[in-house]
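Notes to self, 2-oxoglutarate dehydrogenase, mitochondrial:
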Amino acid sequence: MLSRTAGSLCKPCLRLSLINRANLASKTPVRPVAVARAVTAEPFMNGSSSNYIEQMYESWRADPNSVHRSWDAYFRNVEAGAAPGQAYQAPPTLVPSAQSFAMQPVPQARPAAPVASEDVHRAIQDHLKIQLLIRSYQTRGHNIADLDPLGINSADLDDTIPRELELDFYGFTEKDLDREFLLPPTTFIGGDRTHMTLREIVARLKSIYCNHTGVEYMHLTNFEQQEWIRKNFEAPRVTELTHAQKKVLFKRLIRSTKFEEFLAKKWPSEKRFGLEGCEVLIPAIKQVIDRSSTLGVDSIVIGMPHRGRLNVLANVCRQPLETILSQFSTLEPDDEGSGDVKYHLGVCVERFNRQSQRNLKIAVVANPSHLEAVDPVVQGKVRAESFYSDDPKCDRHLAIMLHGDAAFSGQGVVMETFNLDDLPSYSIYGSIHMVANNQIGFTTDPRFSRSSPYCTDVGRVVGCPIFHVNVDDPDAVMHVCNVAADWRKTFKKDVIVDLVCYRRHGHNELDEPMFTQPLMYQRIKQTKPILELYQKRILSEGVADEAYVTEELTKYGQILEDAYESAQKVTCVRNRDWLDSPWDDFFRGKDPQRLLPTGIDRANIEQFVEKFSSVPEGFNLHRGLERTLKGRKQMMEENSLDWAIGEGLAFGSLLKEGIHIRLSGQDVERGTFSHRHHVLHDQKIDQKIYNPLNDLSENQAVYTVCNSSLSEYAVLGFELGYSMVNPNSLVIWEAQFGDFSNTAQCIIDQFISSGQSKWIRQTNLCMLLPHGYEGMGPEHSSARPERFLQMCNEDDEIDLDKVTLGPAFEAQQLHDTNWIVANCTTPASFFHLLRRQVLLPFRKPAVLMTPKSLLRHPLARSPIEDFLPETRFQRVIFENGKAAQNPSGVERLVFCTGKVYFDLVAARKQLGLEEKVALARVEQIAPFPYDMIKDEYEKYRQAETIWAQEEHKNMGAWGFIQPRFNSLLKRENKGIKYAGRKPSASPATGNKYTHINEQKQVIADVFGVSKTSL
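result:
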């Protein structure tokens, strides 16, 4: 061993000495990792424990008094030349008494005779216990924090005190409280101090972890993140606000509180879902915004339920108060849209942030009462905004998500949305979640509405730190909001702020909560509003005087009265004031009655097919795909293009025209049915891929094609939000099978089908839903077209004498419809329909039933001529065979849509009825193509009219088309007959034999023949 004068212990020698020291203490051999754990009582990660010992040794070399005297004696013995075993013997400077941990001066003389080793062992054990005690508070302190402003509930639904938070669990007693202990390196409670008494340690831990803030973070698996949170909560005085900050907070509480009181006074019988009991939410949101703006954020998207929405619009977004107050009047709208109830509305504003001195855009996304459905919509919107503004890591874009406690824990879309957090094509690099924790659902006690201790436990799954805070301590709320904003900036991960509060008026202002929560609401009646409590606090602390308080209250009261007077002069409602995604420039100068051709020139077709059929030199393509790409070139030569090429031509041409395309869904890169292959994988180099549609030209737009998580609800919501940002884009969601769209029904019903009517929100989002009866059973046959058709806003009565048919009729139909429902049968139809989505002078969602077996069907092909300039989407494809050459000889005119057409063509040929039966395909079912149906019918006026479908009678398009055909044919005193499966509860049979038998019966009914003849 080297003496101290000769240098220092080398690190291997030091570690060896430590190992031997631990060996002697335990009487059994100890591995180095075990030594580190024994000495530090911390997980041995990344060498942190041994580093700690080495750091302590280096600290001792600089100043012997900087470490505990037992370690000082040990290091002295080692450097004096003692063997490891002898060095372990405690020096005489360690006094074996109750004060053995007290810091005393260490004599500089050489070590004297060693004392009993059990005293040193006790000292080490006490040191370990202190570390475990501190760790227990860091881990479990939130369980006993004072979080409920009513003082009657435990936020974690458990009133017991964890044993590891009690001193006797570690063998400590009253006499140990004034003993001094060395603080471990994994805490910052001492500030600059290295030692504290047990009494000080416990008091500090309780102040940090068990007061009005409960911090959950020890479930994080990243040591750096844990350390960061400890610094932001444990360091002394980190939570204190300046007098100026407290004044700002007080003024924001005035606005939040007095706004609700004003509405209650003026409109006592109106629902408004006010914030009473959680008024601190407004200052909390504003604090997050202030801090985030200071950190570089310039665009914030807010998603929230209805509680507090009007207050947020007024006092966070600063929507003009008279505009908000006019919503309480019965006024006619002066523009399009049916409007929605006021507490569902959204808004988009740009304002100057005084705290950061920067301009800021804030949008609140309009959403229905399906509380958490807005979560993925907001995230999709943020992702799109960051994409279009070249902010790939969302440094300038932020989502703030507001939740209620019952919805946050109860609704599955929350977890689905969290699961998108770190997915490369979906991540927005962290959201800030704020929970208005009412400690109750509508009338349901949390003990009966969730199985987890906290309503926020879903966040633990994805590694969110969770900050629970009592809303009656606004200073603590401001601190956690600052930490949340800093966390998101630092780590680009989600964070949850759980505002533990209450509802002063029940579910809404007209509800009587005493029916179901009598004790809670007795306590609420006795609880003073936070504004009153905080007012007393700032007066007692000398932050402000009575004159200041009176002035601020009077000032805002006058603002409200002036706005009320102005609102009385409003004579109509402008629904456009509530747009959350304004597209003013898009509509300017466009003629809504003009529909452009959707074809492209041959040179582009040739270029796209060539690119779509090749890979770069040196790329190791799968042998099976070599045949696929070769087949694409061959189809071009044969002038017979399949579905994959038709889709690729649509995408490629739009990309080259500068239109960004995003295709998302389960397995969309390859395609569920292995037809698309837009992302090719090198067979020898991991993660080396090639996307030919991103390799068309230097100036093309970006094509994003991304496999999603196994979610429909959240992913479709995400794509909807993405589509709302830029009208000059095409956003597509493809279901793995159309049947699975039903798990996204909330997004479909509440946002897509009715979004324009309720919120004047246009989108050209496309939903591709594979559909077709091919014997694959009830889960893989039907995209449920009947549901989408039922939600169409089109009337089923039409007076052709009052309608001008032609291109203007088609344009007007598209302008008026809420969405487009189509079932294409040719690649060219699909090509034109996709391009029309972008070339329309307005935006409409499209629900497209896409094929499965038709993807490779030899008859489901299109010639190049069908894609050329001046061609366009054909809503109905007329009969063009032998029957069309002799219309008077046709006995049956059969209309159908989708795959069944090819089954009918084959059967007609087999039966020799090609001159007797005309087959017409309805490619666009809604809006219903009255004009083209009329033209085809008049050509075969003497024929019997039949609707054929493979779906059951209570499904498919029959319920939609029947009244429309009857309206069209009533002047002829004719109607339309049905040929298809009988009504059924299940969409399809799972038995192949039954399927074939049913299909034969459908065909037999269409042609009026016996099933045995097929």
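- The chain is about 40% helix and 10% strand.
- Residues 1-50, 88-113 have pLDDT under 50 and may be disordered.
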